[in-house]
Amino acid sequence: MALSYQEAKLIHDTIPALTDHGERITTILYRRMLRDHPELNDHFNLANLASGRMPRALMAVILNYASNINNITELIPKLEHAWTKAYWMLARMLAGRESQLYRSFGRWQGYRQFKIEKKVEEAQNVYSIYLVPVDGQPLPTFMPGQYVSVRVDLPAKGHHQSRQYSLSDAPQQDYYRITIKRAGIKDHEFRNLGVVSNLLIDEKGNGDIVQLTHPAGDFFLDMDNPSNEPIILISAGIGLAPMISILNAVSQRSPSRPISWIYGSHRDIPFHEHVRCTERSHPNLRVNMFQTQPAGPGQVCTIHRGRLNLAKVRSADLWLDICGHGV
Question: Where is the FAD-binding FR-type domain (predicted)?
């Protein structure tokens, strides 16, 4: 079902109004939808709703879609018809892509039960959680850098909540690992924006059950590509989680591949000893770490003091291929 030329013009004509008032429209849309269908609380990230992030994201998708629809003029009953038609076309496109992704996951559809095998404190307020499948079946591989959705029950709120966490180890057949940070951000509408992370750290223990989706995501290193090109991994804070997955995968499968590891942290550095150990066994790994506060007890001082600054990284520690006119 395609839009007519007149319908496309109507859509395009409403872009200025959507730019000015779109976030309010999508905020009201979500509010009414959750009021009429409270069961959807199990599926939406309520922290992102409270902060306005989700309404803004939906509006950005709609505006981007509308901006590519073409031309101008006309209004009212036809406008509603045109936008209804355009919106459902977009919805079908997104649902079709989602179905395509699910088909690629094979037999693992939806959520699968996992048991927390152990939790390891990697640094202050940073924990790695090892998760094993309850059914005992081998786990599918994934591309290092990808994530899983983790769903937990929130009995006090009467619904589930899901959050996305990067996998933080090289692919294994018997477990997945995520690395998460305790959050302390408060919000007047949604009491604790770190509700799922904090629950996993503070309330869930060994043997507890959580639910995971199949690994997914477009941010990854393609390990099927036999390239030996150098890699630069730059991260800060909990953003190191997908990077440590990439580092572990490459060091295991391509031990001669040049890697630059550049990381910044306020205080304690997660995986500090692991990265140093990998550096000793991987001759082509160059490590630069930055720290804005003194190291914690028993932690080896990092190379650089202050915020992450590439100007302080020796050129010999960067593996760069540069190609272009005038270089």
Answer: 109-222
The Cα–Cα gap between 213 and 219 comes to 17
Tokens of 226: 């036999």
The residues, any chain, with a CB within 8 Å of residue 290's CB and separated by 6 or more, are 262, 263, 264, 265, 302, 303, 304, 305, 306, 307, 308, 309, 312
Would you list the DSSP string of 43-109?
A: TS-HHHHHHTHHHHHHHHHHHHHHHTS------THHHHHHHHHHHHHHHHHHHHHHHHHHHHTTT--
Question: Rounded to 5 degrees, what are φ and ψ at 318?
Answer: -110, 125
- How many CB atoms are located within 10 Å of the residue 322 CB? 5
What pLDDT, on a 0 to 100 scale, did the predictor assign at position 117?
A: 97
Return the percent helix, strand and coil in the chain, to nearest 5: 40, 20, 40
Distance CA(125)–CA(103), nearest Å, equals 37
For 40, list phi and psi in degrees, rounded to 5: -75, -10
Report, as ranges of residue numbers, the positions in the chain whose pLDDT lies below 50: 71-75, 186-190, 298-302, 316, 319-327
Number of Cβ atoms within 10 Å of the Cβ of 146 = 19
Q: Name the H helices within the chain.
A: 5-13, 15-36, 46-51, 53-67, 77-104, 195-202, 240-253, 272-281
Alpha carbons within 13 A on the beta-carbon side of 178: 23
**Which of the 8 DSSP states describes residue 295?**
P
Cα–Cα dist 281/74, whole Å:
68
The full set of domains in the chain, from first to last, is 5-104 (1.10.490.10), 112-212 (2.40.30.10), 231-317 (3.40.50.80)
Residue 31's pLDDT is: 84
Identify the pLDDT of residue 74. 42
